[in-house]
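2.7 Reproducibility. Because tokenized structures are sensitive to small changes in the input, we list the exact sequence used for Probable membrane transporter protein, including any N-terminal residues retained from the expression construct. No trimming or masking was applied before prediction.
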Amino acid sequence: MLTTTILALAGFGAGALNAIAGGGTFLTFPALVWVGVPPIMANATATFAALPGYAGSSWAYRRDIQAGEGPSLTALVVTAMLGGILGALLLLVTPEDLFSGVIPWLLLMATLAFAAGPALLRGLLASGRHLPDAVSLTLTLLLLVSIYGGYFNGGLGILLLAAFGLIGMSDLHRMNGLKTLASLVLSAVSVVTYSLAGLIDWNALLVTGLGCATGGYVGAHMARKMQDLSLPRTFIVTVGLVTTIVFFAQAYG
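Resulting structure tokens (single pass, no recycling of outputs):
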């Protein structure tokens, strides 16, 4: 009963936060590990639980996703699929002990990206600076971020936004739309790979996923009324830092 309650609350909170400001993985991943799910399986299950939220967000941004600046939809989808598969395969061949040692660093990087990402993105867009206009360079950058997302989902959204900013995009609505589409595609192919490899804890997924879906619905309504996102972002950064410290202590203490 305690396990079910923890996973349901973590899922609800993650779904709501993802709808408002992002960062829900900082709740579901440590909750899954805390209730006894092995780290690699917890990572795979947390990614699966976030999938319905990505689908809903992609539908909400469907008009912004249509043709505009940035990479073509075909190139984006193919690159995200390839990166998601490569990242998932990389996770499959990572020994559990090695992954446990890498987790704190991944959490730290994701937390710092989440904390500093919006300010850096605003500065990047204001400066007008971007990488040279080359399709190969653009797709390589997206591929690298997609591989990261297939390996570890935390902080994926802000990394994708930063990548779009680096290639010269400035329309935040389209950037958010492409971000959710890329997240949906790479997460979908990742969870298929995880499922075939037996890395999904289906019982935990059921509880966490239902919580995420419910929280996402509530969070979407809250997001429309919120003008200042500093409080939820501060909460997520705090949770991320505390979680990072705990995992560092467990891995290297």
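Residues 2-252 form one domain.
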